Every structure is written in C-alpha cells, then in structure tokens.
Amino acid sequence: MAPNQVQGPSIQVHGLTKSYKKVEALRGVDFDVARGSIFALLGSNGAGKTTVVKILSTLLKADAGSASVNGFDVATEAADVRESISLTGQFAAVDEILSGRENLVLVAHLRHLKDPGAIADGLLDRFSLTEAGVRRVSTYSGGMRRRLDIAMSLVAHPRVIFLDEPTTGLDPEARIEVWQAVKELAEHGTTVLLTTHYLDEAEQLADRIAILNEGRIIVNGTLLELKQLIPPAKVEYVEKQPTLEDVFLAIVGHDGKGE
Q1: Contact 153, 123 (CB under 8 A)
Q2: Residues 259, 215: contact at Cβ < 8 Å?
Q3: Which run of H or of E encompasses 109?
Q4: What angle do CA 73, 75, 78 make, to 5 degrees?
Q5: Strand pairing class (160-164; 191-196)
Q6: Model-level pTM?
Q7: 73-132 pLDDT, tens per residue?
Q8: What are the respective helix, strand and coil percentages of the chain, to the nearest 5?
Q9: Which domains occur in the chain, in start order?
Q10: What residues have CB less than 8 Å from 172, skipping those under 6 apart?
C-alpha cells in the first residue's frame, strides 16, 4: 500500500544537476507540482526531460540538488518514493501474448493485492477496455495499448504517476484517447508529471507548463501566464492570440538545441 499522502506540493525539485561525462544534462532545475494536478515538462528531444523523470523515480542519482515525491526524499527515502509512484515510459510495457485483463491481473498478483480480478475489471471499465479485455493485446490499437499501459500503472493506486512522452508514435485518434485517460487521472486525484515535446499536448492537458531548454527551466506557469510573456498580437482585422508554439519559439528560439 502506498505511504500516506502528506501536505504541501506533491513534487518538489530544487537545484538538480546531472552530467554525463562532459555533457551537462541538467543545470539547476527547480519546480514544484501541486497535488492532483497535471504538470507538463515541455522541451525538445535531448532537453533533459527523461533525466528529470529518472531522478524523480529513483532510477538515477543527481549530481547535486534535492527532490522529493509525496514528501519523501528521492535520495534518502527511495523505497518510500517507489511505493508512492508509478512510471510509464515512452513505449507500452505490456505482454502481447496475454489478454488485457490477464496483464492487469498479473500486475495485481505481483503486488500481492487482494482480489486481482476485481481490480482488473475496475480498471478495464475505467479506461473503456472492458470489451477488449478478453482479447490478446497483440490485437490492440496503439491507443488501446497505451491506455492499458497506464491502467497497469494504476493497479496499486499510486499518488503520483510519471508519463514520459506517452503519445510518441501514436496517430491523432490514439493521442486523443490517451489525453482523455490522462485528464481522468487528475480528476481521480492522481498527480501527473508529463514530459512531452508536443506543444499541443501540453496545451491540451497541463495545469502548469515548464519549458526545459539545455538543462534549465526557462519559464514555468499556466498557459495564460506563458502567453502573456510575448508581445500582444498585432491587430489588423482580427486579433491573433498567441499559441503555445509561439511562446515556445519566442523564448527558446528557432535554433534551440538539447543537451
């Protein structure tokens, strides 16, 4: 069972640095994530997003700085952090030979939970996979596999879930399916940290957006706050409101490079 929820931000990150040989992946990263919110870490490929997730999920140690998840320090209380979280990587980690329901039951058994069948059925219903639950995962579409992957991450009711580029390689319809699943996570009280390089994804999902560029957070705010960072649109006949893409390119520049 996950540790009890504590007061304050669900995730706190202060001054994180990480280098790989001579490459500085993170150069003093700071941000907080409110409980039950969706926080998007937005940046180009190689900006350091996955490095942040690996540190927060205790898969990698930072060179300096501190971070806590659900009130537990990622460096000194790693076991408690792992009990509080779930991580969904860039590719769906599902067994294609098994059915969707069998995948969920297997995870529930591995976590020594009571009544794995009921847990599986509940999650299949929540992610609109009940009819597909008896079929082999090899027959699933990309969106269905990703929804099942997220459902598997929720078997033990984690307080926090990390989604590392969850819609990479999916077609538009499948992406919308996953977006709806992510929104429902927050509605159920789960804190979501989402990494993405898709501007529309951050715009659609996030309560707050932090832009990570060359290992640093260069801006952090709501979508409205980010839009206010660039000059008002020039009015000719119709005022053009800035998109998140306009904000991103204005701040990072067209030639921004990753780590």
Answers
A1: no
A2: yes
A3: helix 100-110
A4: 75
A5: parallel
A6: 0.81
A7: 999 999 999 999 998 877 667 889 999 999 999 999 988 889 999 999 999 998 889 999
A8: 35, 25, 40
A9: 11-252 (3.40.50.300)
A10: none
